[in-house]
Design brief:
Structural class: mainly alpha
Number of helices: 8
Distance between the termini: 9 Å
Helix content: 55-70%
Shape: globular
Number of domains: 1
Radius of gyration: 17 Å
Number of strands: 0
Largest sheet: none
Length: 208
C-alpha cells in the first residue's frame, strides 16, 4: 500500500475535531513509539536511534536531531525536483513526506502541537511564490546550526536554546504555510497528511 491507494472517503474529518495542526500531531504521535521500537530492533547497537524527549544540550541527541532534519531535507529536495519536472502530484506526496518527518521530529523534541494556532498560521496573506516559500530550508538549517557539539570535539559548546526554539518553530510554521500554498487549502494539507499517515500505519501493522 502507498499513498496512491488512498481513497477520499472523508474519514479524515473525524481526526480534525481538535484542529488541523493538533490533529496531525495526534495522528503522528500514535505511530512514534512503534518507529522507536522498530529502529531499536533493526539497529540495536546504533547510539543514534530515535527516542522521545530528545535533549538539545546532549551531544548524542544533537546528532539524532540532525539525522532527523536530514530526513526532512531529503524529502524537500525530492519535492523541488518534482516541481522542476512540473509533476504536481509528486510535489504533494514529497511535501507530505517532509511534513510527516518534521512532525515526528517535533514530537520527539517534546512539542505536542498546542503551540500552534490554525487561524494564525493558515491565514496567510504573504502571497509568496513557491520558490520564496522554500526558504524553509534555511530555517531548519539555522535551527540545527545551534547544535554545535561533535563527537570529535573535546569542548562542550553551550546551546543558544532560545535561538534554537525560535528557529525550529519558525521552520515548522513556514513548512505548514508552504503546504497550504502547494495544496491550495489547509483542508487538503490535512487530507494528504492523513493519506500518508494511513499508509504508514498500514505498513507498521503489516510489517511492511
Amino acid at each position: 500500500m502507498n499513498i496512491s491507494d488512498f481513497k477520499d472517503d472523508k474519514t479524515f474529518i473525524k481526526y480534525m475535531d481538535e484542529g488541523i495542526i493538533r490533529g496531525m500531531f495526534k495522528m503522528q504521535d500514535s505511530l512514534v513509539d512503534a518507529y522507536v521500537r522498530i529502529e531499536g530492533e533493526n539497529c540495536p547497537n546504533n547510539p543514534y536511534n530515535i527516542h522521545r524527549g530528545l535533549d538539545i544540550t546532549n551531544t548524542n541527541d544533537q546528532l539524532i536531531i540532525k539525522i532527523l532534519s536530514q530526513r526532512v531535507m531529503e524529502e524537500l529536495g525530492e519535492m523541488k525536483m518534482a516541481a522542476a519536472e512540473h509533476n504536481q502530484e509528486h510535489v504533494k506526496e514529497e511535501f507530505e513526506d517532509a511534513l510527516i518527518f518534521a512532525t515526528e521530529m517535533m514530537i520527539l523534541l517534546g512539542v505536542d502541537g498546542t503551540q500552534y494556532s490554525d487561524e494564525e498560521i493558515f491565514e496567510d496573506n504573504y502571497n509568496m511564490s513557491f520558490d520564496q516559500r522554500v526558504v524553509v530550508y534555511e530555517y531548519l538549517t539555522a535551527a540545527t546550526n545551534c547544535l554545535k557539539n561533535k563527537t570529535w570535539k573535546k569542548d562542550h559548546v553551550l546551546v543558544d536554546q532560545k535561538a534554537f526554539w525560535r528557529r525550529i518553530h519558525k521552520f515548522y510554521i513556514t513548512l505548514l504555510q508552504l503546504g497550504e500554498s502547494i495544496m491550495g487549502s489547509k483542508i487538503d494539507v490535512f487530507k494528504y497528511f492523513y493519506a500518508k499517515w494511513s499508509t504508514n500505519k498500514f505498513r507498521q501493522v503489516s510489517n511492511y
